[in-house]
């Protein structure tokens, strides 16, 4: 009679109340609350649950609070689908409702997948007032340390979203087509070195640049050159114009101009020092500047520099005191800085063509250029680089310490170790401000006259109290006098509330989720594990690391585990338009409305997730799911058979010497199996766990052990020791295998556990409360494996001779060498037996073993023969199997002669097998 399971819903609460000091903290990276769960969610949540359930069974108390990332543009865009003009509070209300609905749907799916958590009481949401107040505190502490600052800098800007984006919010389209241009800028002021090289008088000299963003040319403020590169003057024979470019570009320039240029001389890039050129659109005289970013891999060796629209350009401008101006507004349109003829034109629509038209004969060539280009990850449209006033985290100040802390973090799989370091090392700053309303407002006020930001301990503490009381809606609901009371300003001598205006930016959602360690973990707690997809090296892993290093000087995690992404069976990305999307709900429950999709249940989805390759994409489709289903069915069938065999078993006190040799051998294999499974779990190799289980169940248990024990089980007395010996082993196989499967297939394991023998050891109502399996060290015995090997070899020889015939129809006589005879007596004490361990392994009618040296075989024994085996079927001698280190040609002759003279049988009746 099986026990009644308590289900999964109370398991997390139960384990939290268990005694013990061992704790395992898996901090949940919050999924985005913007839609139905997909198979990517399944991979992530199920891998986390497998990890938690394994640690629980190993005696750890699990700390796992599921979370949701609830703010941000994607939710705002989905919630506000109408074009009606809405107030910020109306937008926020719609977005919050949308997020809550998505959370409800996702949570129900996670529960159905068997994810263990306290779903009612212990989840976190980034829009909770307590979470937002903690986030404000982290922001202020970083600001106070000088790690957060406001500046006018170029950032990735999405015209389609109307906001700044971080690097982690970009996707790169490898097939983007840009309109690239080669442009000649007239050099109007020579340096002394250039004067000597060119011979200036009466010549028009042009510096040639190349750019894939011609819309940035009105914002050009310098041309950068490489001081160590070699440049040349190339003369146009038709009009004596001179073009300057890097020396390896001359041939390409001749091709672009459609004429053969004559190289006059070459010189170092340092010769440009002091030279100037005139901008053909603005008439400004501008400098040549040295830049380390100038290379010969692309372009002309002369780099167009627009400080308001390029990261390297900005650094050059700051280092050389150039003015930084953006010529494009929030919508991606030229503003008045670009000039009257360009104002109002849109990047990617008509801006490029107009710039090219205005440059006239300064354009050498226009070409289409296909290359990888950043797109907004949500709108799937191109972004631009645009300088604007934003809030930043100074990653340069944190980078060295963060990299140092990463050395203490273990990464699984190890091949991914360098991904985080390389991404972090290339990040100059982190833009954390967004120009939207669905998020936590940046808690800063600005002086109306000076535009200087106001943020200090008093203002932050007051805002935190308001957020805890009203939520972050208070930023839009309350008046500025309520948000910034006069009494606070008076104490600081900072005037009155009417002198200030509140900021209009919100915090980046990566900052939202990046401080989750501070909101969810308490005190000095550090997560044992963060487990997310590969893309989080540049996302949540990194934002969590930077904020934690800023406040605590250490990483918030001890280990990182990463996994790949779901693709279809052909390795293609899933897309609704292609029709290759796999819905996890349909995997579990099957299709509706006469759909033919089978229902597999949650454990098939869990098995598929467990078998994913951590380093690469994870394929899923009907064929793969059916294979997973068949794997579970095969395991289920074998374990069900074993359960039936041990139904009335109650003797766990048997000692090893009371067991049959093959039973001791199976316990040895079981010990090896359990050790391997534990090692795979410890290394997060859950696919290896399942491979090990399948191999053990199919080969060792089903093909070998189950095939030989039937007579002992069904023909022996129920109380006989020979029967109990096998039941003892079968019980332990069931127990170890079921517990090995439990973290991955909890529904299956719990069901199977309910039908365990009703023993004292299994009074718990859940297999997870009983802990991991125990492997008796006495089970591991190499001598038992060595002892049975010759017997298994003989069995293999027997089967190779009789092929498809049933071995039970044969009687076997084995004439053994002295050494082999001593081995065989461990399996059969008497000379002849129909029920010995040896006969059971051989599966023959009866087995005879003898070491009598009949004269007919004397010569063969002297030649190191191991054994001669006779197989009889229905009183007809049909085969002789001889194994030994003897000459094959002599062997057959000796055996045939011996048998014919000894037993008087005909030559045609003797078949000799040798090995």
From TrEMBL:
<keyword id="KW-0436">Ligase</keyword>
<comment type="similarity">
    <text>Belongs to the class-I aminoacyl-tRNA synthetase family.</text>
</comment>
<keyword id="KW-0067">ATP-binding</keyword>
<dbReference type="InterPro" id="IPR001412">
    <property type="entry name" value="aa-tRNA-synth_I_CS"/>
</dbReference>
<keyword id="KW-0030">Aminoacyl-tRNA synthetase</keyword>
<dbReference type="InterPro" id="IPR002301">
    <property type="entry name" value="Ile-tRNA-ligase"/>
</dbReference>
<dbReference type="GO" id="GO:0006428">
    <property type="term" value="P:isoleucyl-tRNA aminoacylation"/>
</dbReference>
<dbReference type="GO" id="GO:0004822">
    <property type="term" value="F:isoleucine-tRNA ligase activity"/>
</dbReference>
<dbReference type="GO" id="GO:0005524">
    <property type="term" value="F:ATP binding"/>
</dbReference>
<dbReference type="Pfam" id="PF08264">
    <property type="entry name" value="Anticodon_1"/>
</dbReference>
<dbReference type="GO" id="GO:0032543">
    <property type="term" value="P:mitochondrial translation"/>
</dbReference>
<keyword id="KW-0963">Cytoplasm</keyword>
<feature type="domain" description="Methionyl/Valyl/Leucyl/Isoleucyl-tRNA synthetase anticodon-binding">
    <location>
        <begin position="663"/>
        <end position="782"/>
    </location>
</feature>
<protein>
    <recommendedName>
        <fullName>isoleucine--tRNA ligase</fullName>
        <ecNumber>6.1.1.5</ecNumber>
    </recommendedName>
</protein>
<dbReference type="InterPro" id="IPR009008">
    <property type="entry name" value="Val/Leu/Ile-tRNA-synth_edit"/>
</dbReference>
<dbReference type="InterPro" id="IPR009080">
    <property type="entry name" value="tRNAsynth_Ia_anticodon-bd"/>
</dbReference>
<dbReference type="InterPro" id="IPR050081">
    <property type="entry name" value="Ile-tRNA_ligase"/>
</dbReference>
<dbReference type="InterPro" id="IPR013155">
    <property type="entry name" value="M/V/L/I-tRNA-synth_anticd-bd"/>
</dbReference>
<dbReference type="GO" id="GO:0000049">
    <property type="term" value="F:tRNA binding"/>
</dbReference>
<feature type="domain" description="Aminoacyl-tRNA synthetase class Ia">
    <location>
        <begin position="12"/>
        <end position="616"/>
    </location>
</feature>
<dbReference type="InterPro" id="IPR002300">
    <property type="entry name" value="aa-tRNA-synth_Ia"/>
</dbReference>
<dbReference type="GO" id="GO:0046872">
    <property type="term" value="F:metal ion binding"/>
</dbReference>
<dbReference type="InterPro" id="IPR014729">
    <property type="entry name" value="Rossmann-like_a/b/a_fold"/>
</dbReference>
<keyword id="KW-0648">Protein biosynthesis</keyword>
<keyword id="KW-0479">Metal-binding</keyword>
<dbReference type="GO" id="GO:0005739">
    <property type="term" value="C:mitochondrion"/>
</dbReference>
<dbReference type="GO" id="GO:0002161">
    <property type="term" value="F:aminoacyl-tRNA deacylase activity"/>
</dbReference>
<dbReference type="InterPro" id="IPR033708">
    <property type="entry name" value="Anticodon_Ile_BEm"/>
</dbReference>
<dbReference type="Pfam" id="PF00133">
    <property type="entry name" value="tRNA-synt_1"/>
</dbReference>
<keyword id="KW-0547">Nucleotide-binding</keyword>
């Amino acid at each position: 009679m099986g026990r009644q399971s308590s289900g999964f819903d109370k398991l997390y609460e139960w384990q939290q109340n268990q005694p013990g000091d061992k704790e395992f903290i898996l901090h949940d990276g919050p999924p985005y609350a913007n839609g139905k769960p997909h198979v990517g969610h399944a991979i992530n949540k199920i891998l986390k649950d497998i990890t938690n359930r394994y640690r629980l069974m190993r005696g750890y108390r699990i700390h796992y609070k599921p979370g949701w990332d609830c703010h941000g543009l994607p939710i705002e865009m989905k919630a506000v689908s109408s074009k009606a003009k809405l107030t910020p509070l109306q937008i926020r209300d719609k977005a919050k409702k949308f997020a809550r609905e998505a959370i409800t749907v996702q949570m129900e799916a996670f529960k159905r997948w068997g994810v263990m958590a306290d779903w009612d009481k212990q989840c976190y949401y980034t829009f909770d007032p307590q979470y937002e107040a903690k986030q404000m505190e982290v922001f202020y502490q970083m600001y106070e340390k000088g790690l957060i600052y406001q500046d006018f800098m170029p950032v990735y800007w999405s015209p389609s979203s109307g906001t700044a984006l971080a690097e982690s919010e970009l996707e790169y389209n490898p097939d983007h087509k840009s309109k690239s241009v080669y442009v000649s800028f007239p050099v109007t002021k020579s340096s002394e070195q250039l004067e000597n090289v060119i011979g200036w008088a009466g010549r028009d000299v042009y510096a040639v640049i190349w750019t894939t963003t011609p819309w940035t040319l009105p914002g050009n403020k310098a041309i950068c050159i490489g001081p160590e590169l070699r440049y040349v003057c190339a003369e146009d024979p038709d009009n004596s114009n001179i073009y300057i470019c890097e020396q390896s570009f001359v041939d390409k320039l001749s091709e672009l101009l459609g004429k053969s240029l004559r190289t006059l001389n070459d010189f170092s890039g340092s010769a440009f020092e002091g030279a100037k050129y005139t901008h053909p659109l603005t008439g400004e005289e501008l400098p040549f500047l040295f830049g380390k970013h100038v290379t010969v891999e692309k372009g002309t060796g002369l780099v167009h520099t627009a400080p308001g629209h390029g990261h390297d350009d900005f650094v050059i401008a700051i280092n050389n005191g150039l003015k930084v101006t953006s010529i494009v507004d929030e919508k991606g349109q030229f503003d008045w800085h670009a000039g009257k003829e360009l104002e109002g034109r849109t990047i990617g629509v008509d801006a490029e063509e107009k710039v090219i038209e205005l440059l006239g004969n300064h354009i050498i060539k226009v070409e289409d250029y296909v290359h990888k280009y950043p797109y907004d990850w949500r709108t799937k449209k191109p972004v631009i680089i645009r300088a604007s006033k934003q809030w930043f985290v100074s990653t340069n100040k944190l980078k060295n310490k963060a990299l140092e802390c990463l050395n203490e973090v273990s990464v699984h799989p190890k091949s991914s170790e360098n991904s985080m370091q390389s991404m972090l090392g290339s990040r100059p700053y982190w833009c954390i401000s967004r120009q939207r309303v669905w998020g936590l407002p940046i808690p800063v006020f600005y002086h109306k006259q000076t535009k200087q930001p106001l943020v200090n301990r008093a203002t932050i503490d007051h805002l935190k109290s308001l957020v805890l009381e009203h939520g972050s809606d208070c930023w839009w609901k309350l008046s500025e006098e309520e948000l910034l009371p006069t009494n606070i300003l008076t104490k600081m001598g900072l005037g009155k509330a009417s002198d200030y205006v509140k900021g209009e930016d919100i915090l980046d959602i990566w900052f939202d989720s990046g401080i989750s360690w501070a909101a969810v973990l308490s005190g000095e707690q550090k997560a044992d594990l963060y487990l997310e997809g590969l893309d989080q090296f540049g996302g949540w892993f990194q934002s969590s690391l930077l904020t934690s290093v800023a406040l605590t000087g250490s990483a918030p995690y001890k280990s990182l585990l990463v996994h790949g992404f779901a693709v279809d069976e052909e390795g293609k990305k899933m897309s609704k338009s292609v029709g290759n999307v796999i819905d996890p709900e349909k995997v579990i429950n099957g299709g509706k409305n006469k759909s033919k999709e089978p229902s597999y249940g949650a454990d098939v989805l869990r098995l598929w997730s467990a078998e994913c390759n951590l380093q690469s994409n994870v394929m899923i489709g009907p064929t793969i799911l059916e294979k997973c289903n068949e794997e579970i069915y095969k395991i289920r069938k074998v374990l069900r058979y074993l359960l039936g065999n041990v139904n009335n078993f109650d003797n766990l006190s048997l000692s090893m010497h009371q067991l049959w040799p093959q039973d001791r051998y199976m316990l040895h294999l079981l010990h090896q199996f359990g050790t391997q499974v534990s090692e795979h779990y410890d290394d997060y190799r859950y696919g290896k766990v399942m491979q090990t289980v399948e191999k053990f169940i199919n080969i060792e248990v089903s093909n070998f052990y189950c095939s030989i024990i039937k007579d002992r089980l069904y023909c022996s007395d129920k109380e006989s020791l020979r029967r109990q010996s096998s039941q003892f082993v079968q019980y332990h196989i069931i127990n170890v295998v079921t517990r090995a499967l439990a973290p991955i297939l909890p529904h299956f394991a719990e069901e199977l556990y309910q039908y365990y023998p009703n023993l004292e050891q299994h009074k718990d109502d859940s297999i997870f409360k009983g802990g991991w399996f125990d492997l008796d060290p006495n089970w591991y015995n190499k001598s038992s494996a060595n002892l049975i090997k010759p017997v298994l070899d003989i069995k293999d020889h027997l089967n190779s001779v009789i092929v498809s015939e049933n071995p039970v129809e044969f009687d076997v006589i084995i004439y053994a060498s002295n050494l082999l005879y001593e081995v065989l007596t461990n399996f059969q004490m008497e000379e002849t037996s129909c029920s010995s361990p040896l006969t059971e392994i051989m599966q023959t009618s009866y087995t005879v073993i003898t070491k009598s040296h009949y004269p007919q075989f004397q010569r063969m024994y002297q030649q190191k023969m191991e054994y001669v085996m006779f197989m009889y079927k229905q009183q007809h001698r049909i085969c002789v199997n001889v194994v030994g280190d003897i000459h094959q040609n002599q062997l057959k002759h000796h055996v045939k002669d011996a048998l014919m003279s000894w037993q008087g049988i005909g030559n045609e009746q003797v078949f000799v097998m040798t090995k």
